[in-house]
Write a structure and sequence with these properties.
This protein has about 120 residues and is mainly α. It has seven helices and no strands. The chain has a domain at about 10-85. About 55% of the residues lie in helices and about 0% in strands. Helix 4 (about 50-55) packs across helix 6 (about 75-85). The mean pLDDT is about 85.
Length: about 120
């Protein structure tokens, strides 16, 4: 029996502020610009992309294109969209990861090195 699937759209699940913030934070944690812009696009579609486009000063189609996974919006566009959605960015330091020192390298005793030198000579 074949499994029936449907296309999932993130915008359908972004129904409350808590979900939207968690979604955008996860995209920002990923760090990939394509993921971040696609997430902003999903959120804009959930909130009404026509209204966002008007507030940002671009066409709806242009905003769709620039906030897609393949889009490359200018930083000012990202900031305008974020402000239109009611977001502000906060910088925080990453927690420092404790570096574990590598195990000490075992050195061969000097005597072994001296014996090898004699064999070569």
């Amino acid at each position: 029996m074949a499994m029936k699937t449907t296309k999932w759209d993130a915008a359908d699940d972004l129904t409350n502020e808590k979900a939207v913030i968690a979604y955008l934070n996860a995209a920002l944690d990923d760090g990939d610009p394509a993921v971040i812009t696609a997430a902003l696009g999903d959120i804009a579609r959930a909130k009404g992309i026509a209204r966002i486009a008007e507030e940002v000063g671009v066409t709806r189609e242009g905003l769709y294109k620039s906030l897609s996974a393949t889009g490359r919006p200018e930083f000012k566009t990202v900031m305008k969209v974020s402000q239109s959605l009611g977001f502000s960015f906060v910088v925080k330091a990453k927690p420092k990861v404790k570096k574990i020192a590598p195990k000490a390298v075992r050195r061969k005793p000097a005597r072994t090195a001296a014996l090898r030198a004699r064999k070569v000579a």
